[in-house]
Design a protein that fits this description.
The chain is of the alpha/beta class. The radius of gyration is 33 Å and the shape is globular. It has helices spanning 53-58, 66-69, 85-89, 110-113, 136-142, 149-158, 182-189, 219-224, 243-251, 281-292, 295-300, 321-327, 343-358, 380-429; strands at residues 9-16, 28-29, 36-43, 61-64, 94-98, 118-121, 128-129, 169-173, 195-199, 228-232, 254-258, 274-275.
């Protein structure tokens, strides 16, 4: 006889004080084909609400925000507001670092990251992988595009309801001060080509469009109206490729990307992407203009969406073998890690670990701790902007200041020259027609130079 959901034993998964994951609270993990379930429990505010000790004791895994683990920047800002570290040291509990975001600077601090035993995020080296991409990306890439190439060309000229034509490139941005300084690269790019910027930052130059009936365009509708899109990540970290690239694949728009050094696993075809850091802003603008003005070359980069034969439906044969091999669906399991992983599978593996520890089938290793993560390239575009925007100006300023200093010194020394000449002439007239030099006795090691 099968066991109903109501009859299954539940194991708590405690989330400690991170309010942005409030949607998880009381959510049941019941899709794992296991004879038990798990339930997410959110403990929001250690300052004002005492923790449910019974639930805490029953939960061997504690999901903790990286922001809380660093006491210097914590929202709670007190060690006593965190789960007791002594329980981790004793092997009774394990902290799980959860999130989709790229590693922050303080994750490179051993004093912070060493508090965690497990990582649940996008990186393939994580204990529990929560990827932005999974096997569904293949269907998304091969799905019919929401707009035609003719529509894109029309929008370039006509634009939205305001009658203002569109730029070749669009960018939707909400993080206005990114970790890598991507906004500085875009600023340089705008010197050579128009970029329509939407979002919440002060440098936006387009208002979010609406349909004639007043409905706002969706992200997908807006992106598919453009021929190019800036899929710039806010951090340059290994494997950190987010929904920005997925959106361009779905929209049938050429993505201009900036993120990890290697996009090989994320490139649908050999020429599907334009990697920004392979070009200077001026070179990138020239490439975009060339593709914008050559319909055949532009369409060649999007054959997975717009095949030459409109009656032919694109297949995985049109995609890069590396891309297909990376994201082709394989068997999923709550017991064994498979690839590509998905969120449900990873959460099922968390549930299984919580069950096994609670029932004494597995023990937590107190020496298992995360190591500092230093795979990100910090402030990538700050350095670029320094060289392009400021370095030559400061160099010119330095040369100017040096020239002024030398000129002032020359003027000051110039006043002394007549005095020196007068003194030399006076000495000459008095019979001293040479300047006394130090003497050196070749038979002695002592000389006036040695003093």
């Amino acid at each position: 006889m099968s066991t109903s959901i109501q009859d299954k034993k539940e194991y708590p998964l405690m989330w400690w004080g991170k309010d942005e994951i409030r949607g998880f609270d009381q959510k049941l993990v019941d899709n794992c084909n296991l004879p038990y379930n798990c339930r997410h429990i959110l403990y929001r505010d250690p300052r004002f609400n005492p923790v449910d000790k019974d639930l805490y004791d029953k939960s061997p895994l504690i999901f903790v925000s990286i922001y809380q683990a660093d006491d210097s920047i914590s929202a709670f800002n007190r060690p006593e507001d965190l789960p007791p570290q002594k329980d981790v040291d004793a092997g009774k509990k394990a902290w799980v670092l959860y999130g989709w975001e790229a590693p922050k600077w303080f994750e490179s601090k051993k004093s912070v990251i060493n508090k965690f035993s497990y990582k649940f995020n996008y990186h393939p080296n994580s204990d529990f992988i929560y990827p932005y991409f999974d096997s569904s990306i293949l269907d998304l890439v091969l799905a019919p595009p929401p707009s035609t190439l003719e529509y894109k060309n029309t929008m370039r000229q006509k634009g939205f309801n305001d009658g203002r034509g569109l730029a070749p490139i669009a960018w939707i941005v909400s993080n206005c001060n990114s970790f890598n300084g991507r906004e500085y690269y875009v600023h340089q790019l705008q010197k050579y080509i128009n970029v329509d910027i939407y979002g919440h930052c002060k440098n936006l130059n387009r208002v979010w469009p609406r349909h004639a009936d007043g409905r706002e365009f969706t992200d997908l509708e807006l992106t598919s109206s453009y021929k190019f899109y800036l899929a710039f990540e806010n951090s340059n970290c290994d494997f950190y490729v987010t929904e920005k690239l997925k959106r361009t694949y779905e929209a049938g728009t050429i993505p201009i990307v900036d993120g990890p050094n290697d996009y090989g696993l994320f490139a649908a075809t050999h020429n599907a992407l334009i990697q920004a850091d392979q070009y200077s802003p001026k070179q990138l603008a020239a490439l975009v203009k060339a593709l914008d003005n050559d319909e055949d070359k532009y369409a060649d980069r999007l054959r997975y969406k717009y095949p030459k034969d409109p009656a032919r439906k694109p297949t995985v044969e049109d995609l890069s073998p590396v891309f297909v091999g990376q994201w082709m669906n394989r068997n999923q399991s709550a017991t064994y890690r498979s690839w590509p992983p998905n969120y449900d599978e990873s959460m099922c593996r968390v549930c299984k670990l919580a069950h096994d520890v609670s029932e004494g089938l597995e023990t937590l290793d107190p020496t298992k701790r995360l190591a500092p993560d230093a795979n990100c390239l910090a402030k990538k575009h700050y350095r670029f902007t320094w060289m392009v925007e400021y370095h030559w100006r400061l160099s010119l300023l330095f040369v100017a200041l040096l020239g002024m200093t030398l000129f002032v010194l020359y003027r000051k020394r110039g006043r002394r020259i007549p005095r020196i000449m007068t003194w030399l002439l006076r000495e000459w007239d008095s019979g001293m027609n040479y300047l006394a030099l130090p003497t050196f006795d070749s038979k002695s090691t002592n000389s006036q130079w040695s003093n």
